[in-house]
Amino acid sequence: MGYGKRTPKGEISIDNHLGRIRLRWRHNKQRHQLNLPYSYTPENIHYATVKAAEIKLDIMKGYFDPSLEKYKPPVTIKPAKVKTLEELPAVIAGPVHLLFLHELAAKFNVWGNNIRNIDVENSIDYLYTRKVLEKWVDVPIELIAEKLNAEDWAVTTYNRRLHYLKTFFIWLLTNGIITQNYLADVCRKKDKNKKKTARREPISEKEISSFLKAIRNDTYCPPASRFKHSYYYPFLLFIFHTGVRNAEAIGLRVRHIDLEKGQIEISEAFARTIKGANHAARIRKDTKMGNTRYLPMSDDLRLLLIPQMEMKAPDDFVFLSPYGLSIDDRMLQRRIFKPVMIKLGIGDKDLYVARHCFGTRAVQQGMPVTDVAYLMGHSTIETAMRNYVSVNKPAVSLPAINLSRN
């Protein structure tokens, strides 16, 4: 499905060699290969991408080390080993019935890493949920609902952590680690005063057009700027066109674009972690809802994507930063997106407004809510209904009913 089948000449390929990551390339008519001490798994691919970028930069500057010693990772630095399911019995062995909440922290790591397949240390939501358990030292397990309610959290934070902990407690009970699920009957909170974030309120099509035109023409780009605003025009146009999440657009790869079928596969994301939004801090993971969707490719999207795919390997990102790495959406929002929005008089807006504009525009144009939910990657239509369908307008008539007479 990719645009190309082989790594372009002069590029560094990343492949699987006996379960480990291997880099291969040619320089000065010599073949080179570098075996990295990392398993060939999605969460470790970013190590290879960063290393490949380092090697390419040295080649460009004339500092390439043909012995490759410079590029070999220190022996002591290894990615954390996640235990396999076969090893789980040994991990959860010990006291069968735990009594205090802080004792659950270690089990939370096992559940998160092995059952949920989440890198807990690099996931903001999971990491801080575990830290809550660590904080509740010598608090009896049966008081967990009371402790959750006592926390001064926003409703969304409470509901999110309650969801994680309820799923976690089901696993604990199933494995005989606890004798009773004290969260089974705890309900989510409802936010009666919830208001939509003004920074994500959708903008009009005219405002979208004005913004994209300013980006394309570098209207507000400082003269001393190292990189022009227009460099990011394809990426910004793509997210306004498709409504995909930021991390999904950043993680879009050439092989996800099928020009023959005219569709775009959205099946993974290159997501931020607690370490930051830069390339080295991100991890490769599933979409937010863990689903795969296929977006139809319009003529405009085809013309946009083809130049972004040229001379790239199937596993390369479609959209790259000026340094050849993944786009840092946090810096893009702070240095370009927000300043241009403000200067245009549109207001203080987040990059995520593009997604809300897409959903609102789709509903306003009469697209079925089921289609909107699918295109946006929602697991149910509830989210699309809540965010994009307005019921404030009075109905002009009742639906007709045909009562035929016998």
TrEMBL record:
InterPro entries: DNA_brk_join_enz, Integrase-like_cat_sf, Integrase_catalytic, Min27-like_integrase_DNA_bind, Tyrosine_recombinase_XerCD
Pfam families for the chain: Arm-DNA-bind_2, Phage_integrase
A biological process term (GO) from this entry: DNA integration
Sequence ranges assigned to domain Tyr recombinase in this UniProt record: 198-401
Keywords, comma-separated and alphabetical: DNA recombination, DNA-binding
One example GO MF annotation: DNA binding
Family of this protein: Belongs to the 'phage' integrase family.
Protein name in UniProt: Integrase
Native organism: Chitinophaga niabensis
